[in-house]
C-alpha cells in the first residue's frame, strides 16, 4: 500500500490483507472498523468488491491505473499511487469539503488489493493512454 492514507487506515488495510491471505475471508470481522474509519463509503465499497467491479489495468512499461464500474454503471478511473478518483464524489467530498478520506471507488480499489479480488487487464501503452485521455475528455 502507498502511504497516502492515515496510519490507522493503512494498518487496517494491512490487517485485512493478512486475514485474507491466511484464511480467504475476514470481511465480516473488519466491517465495523471499516465503517468507523471510512464512514459511509465502507459498505458501498465492499459491495463493489463483492461484484468484482475493480480492474487493475497495466501496460508493459508497468504503468497502472484502476477502473471501477460504479453502482450507476459509469466507469471511473482511480490511481492508488496518488490517491485519486475521477468520480464527482471524490472531487466534492474529499477534495472540496474534506468530509471523507476517500470515495467508495478508491476504497474499493484498496480493499480489492487487500482481498486479492482485483481483476487484471494488460493493455498496450497506446490503449492505456487512450483510457487516461478518455477520462480527461469527459471532464473537460
Features:
alpha+beta; single chain; 140 residues; 53% helix
What's the structural blueprint in terms of helices and strands?
Elements: H1 7-23, H2 27-38, H3 42-50, E1 54-58, E2 64-69, E3 75-79, E4 84-85, H4 88-96, H5 104-115, E5 119-122, H6 125-139
Parallel strand pairs: 1-5
Antiparallel strand pairs: 1-2, 2-3, 3-4
Helix pairs in contact: 1-2, 1-5, 3-5
Task: Give an overview of the whole structure.
This is ZSWM7 protein. Residues 76-114 form the SWIM-type domain. Keywords: Metal-binding, Zinc, Zinc-finger. GO terms for molecular function: zinc ion binding. By secondary structure, this protein is of the alpha+beta class. The chain has one domain. 53% of the residues lie in helices and 16% in strands. The protein contains 6 helices and 5 strands; from the N terminus they run H-H-H-E-E-E-E-H-H-E-H. The protein has helices spanning 7-23, 27-38, 42-50, 88-96, 104-115, 125-139, and strands spanning 54-58, 64-69, 75-79, 84-85, 119-122. A 5-stranded mixed beta sheet has the order 4-3-2-1-5. The model has no long low-confidence stretch (mean pLDDT 85).
Amino acid at each position: 500500500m502507498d502511504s497516502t492514507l492515515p496510519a490507522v487506515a493503512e494498518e487496517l488495510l494491512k490487517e485485512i490483507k493478512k486475514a485474507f491471505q491466511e484464511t480467504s475471508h475476514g470481511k465480516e470481522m473488519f466491517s465495523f472498523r471499516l465503517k468507523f474509519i471510512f464512514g459511509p463509503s465502507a459498505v458501498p465499497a465492499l459491495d463493489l468488491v463483492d461484484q468484482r467491479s475493480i480492474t487493475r489495468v497495466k501496460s508493459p512499461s508497468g504503468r497502472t491505473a484502476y477502473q471501477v464500474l460504479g453502482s450507476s454503471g459509469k466507469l471511473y478511473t482511480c490511481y492508488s499511487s496518488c490517491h485519486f478518483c475521477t468520480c464527482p464524489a471524490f472531487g466534492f467530498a474529499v477534495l472540496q469539503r474534506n468530509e471523507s478520506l476517500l470515495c467508495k471507488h478508491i476504497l474499493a480499489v484498496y480493499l480489492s488489493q487487500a482481498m486479492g479480488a482485483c481483476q487484471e487487464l494488460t493493455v498496450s501503452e497506446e490503449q492505456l493512454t487512450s483510457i487516461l485521455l478518455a477520462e480527461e475528455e469527459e471532464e473537460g
